[in-house]
Amino acid sequence: MGGMSLQRLVHRLLVILIAALLVLQLGPGNLPPSDSGERIRAYTRSYEFGYEAWTFNAFWVKFQQAVLAAPRYLDLDSQRQIVLDYLALVGQIQQSEDQLAAIYADPAIPDPDAASQDLRAELAALYGRRALLGPLAESVLQQMVEAIAAELGLTLGGQPIPPVLYHSTPLPWALIVSPRDRIEQMHNVSLATETTLEQHIALEEAVASGLDVSTLVVPVGGIGTYPTMVIQTTSLNFLVEVIAHEWIHNFLNLRPLGLLYNATSELRTMNETAANIAGKEIGAALIARFFPEFAPPPAPPQETPPDADTSPPPPAEPPSFDFRAEMHATRVQVDALLAEGKVEEAEAYMEARRLFFWDNGYRIRRLNQAYFAFYGAYADVPGGAAGEDPVGAAVRALRARSASLEEFVKRMSWLTSFEALLTLLGE
C-alpha cells in the first residue's frame, strides 16, 4: 500500500475500534438519565440531535480515509495547501449561505426560489467539493495533531490513545438547564442543527416555566464524541485549537477525570478548563510548526536601554469597554444575590446587565443562571463568566506548577474531585 502497510493499517484500525468502544461506553454522555433529565426530555425529545446516525457516518468517512492513507503520499507543502484550500472553500460556502438567507428574508423579492436558482446550484457544487476535500483536510490535520501530541509526550509508544479522529459538520445546539437558586449545569441536551431560533426560544420558555429552572440554548464549537464533532470555520488557529481540545476530552474519557465529567459542577469545570489549556497549547505548537505564517507576532522586547528614562510609565488608558471585567463583576454580584436567596433580584439584575452589554455592542440574547453555568466552566483565563469560582484558578495553578503540558494533563487526568486537586496543590 505504499505509505501504509496492510499490517500497520489493520493495527491502526484495531486501535481505533478499541478506543471507540471505550470512549463511547465510558464517556460522560453515557451516564444513566436522572428523573429531571427525563422530565426535560418530555419537552425536547422531538428536537434532539441523532448521534447514532452522525457517529456511523463519521466512522465510515474515517474508515475510508484510513484505508487511503492519502496524507502519507503528500509532502508537507501539499498537505498545507489542502488545509488552506479547504478553509477557503468553507469561506465561500458561508458567504453563499448568507446570500441565500438574505434572498429569502428580503420582502422585496416576490419569488425567492427563482431568484436564488443560480446561487443554490452554485452552493450544491460547493457542497460537493467540500464532501471530497473536507475528509482529506481532516486527515492531514489529524496527523499533524498526533505529531504534536507525540512531541509533547501525550502518547503511548508514540501512538495517541485514542487516535485523533474528528469530523467537521454543522453542530447541534445545546439546551443548558440550571437551577434558579444557584449556578450549576444540571443538564445539557443536544438539539438538531436545523432547529430555528423561534424553536429555541419556545423550548427555553416551556422548560423554564414547566420545571421552574433557568434555560438557554447556546452554540458549541465542538463535542467530545468519537470521532469528535468540530465546528466548520475559516479560522485555522481556532480550528486546530478545537480539534486538540476535543481530543483531550477523548483522552480524559479513558481516565477518571473524564469518566466523572458530569459528577459535579467542579469536575466539569476541571475537565473543560484543562481541555482549554491543553487545546490552546497543542494548537499553538501545531501552528508554529506547520503554519508559522499564522502564528501571532512575538511580544516586543522588554529590555530597557542603558540611557532610557527609568521613571514609572503613565498608567495605560483603560479600554472603553472591558467585556471580561464587566462579565466578571456581573457573575460576582449574581452569586452574592443567589447566596442570600434573592433569586428574583438576581434575575432582574442579570436582565439589566444584559441590556448594558447590548448597549455596548455585545448581543447577548439571554443572560441568566444557565448562561453562567455553561460559559463559566471554561476558566482557563481569569475573570469573565467564571466570576470568583476557585476551580478554574486551581487548574491554572496546577498548570503553572507543572514542568510540561504532559505532566499537567496526566496529573489532571487521575483526579476524582476538586478536593483532590487542592490536595495536589497543597492547599
Write a brief structural summary.
With 427 residues, this protein is mainly alpha-helical. The chain contains 16 helices and six strands. The strands form two sheets. It has a three-stranded mixed beta sheet, sandwiched between helices. Strands 3-2-4 form a three-stranded antiparallel beta sheet.
Overview of the structural elements:
- The chain is mostly helical.
- The protein contains 16 helices and six strands.
- The protein has helices at residues 6-26, 35-44, 51-68, 76-105, 112-115, 117-151, 197-211, 236-253, 256-259, 265-290, 323-339, 343-359, 369-375, 390-401, 405-413, 418-425; strands at 166-168, 173-178, 187-191, 214-218, 222-223, 228-230.
- The strands form two sheets. It has a three-stranded mixed beta sheet with strand order 1-6-5, sandwiched between helices. The chain has a three-stranded antiparallel beta sheet with strand order 3-2-4.
- A hairpin with an 8-residue loop joins strand 2 (173-178) and strand 3.
- The longest helix has 35 residues, at 117-151.
- Residues 26-32 have low confidence and may be disordered.
